[in-house]
User: Fold this.
Amino acid sequence: MTGSDSERPEDLEDIVAAAEELLLVENALLPLAAILPNGRFAMANRALSQMLGYEVGELLGREVSDFTQAGDGGFARCWPDVLAGRATAEHVTDLRRRDGHWVRARVAASVVRDASNEPRLVIWRAQEA
Assistant:
């Protein structure tokens, strides 16, 4: 028998549900990421890693601004509004691929809040424009 004898069926159902949700994001055709309030990648799916030319693990912990042009105010401009809950930001920007080329993308961001109403994660979607 695997696991603990004290595990309740509800606990296992929650674990299975969380695993299924993770697999849905990981295997989604749309490039998706979860970004921490400090602007660093907490999670990225395969579609985003392929779009940017990196392995998923190489994106984790990196700042989103590492992949945007320094003069591009799109990400920097919308980030405070997203975190404050004033907007679901969507804009077109150029994202830097690993090979140094730029890809034009329509990016949308939406905040996920914790029980204290503080920003927990930002769900980020990028789609080639």
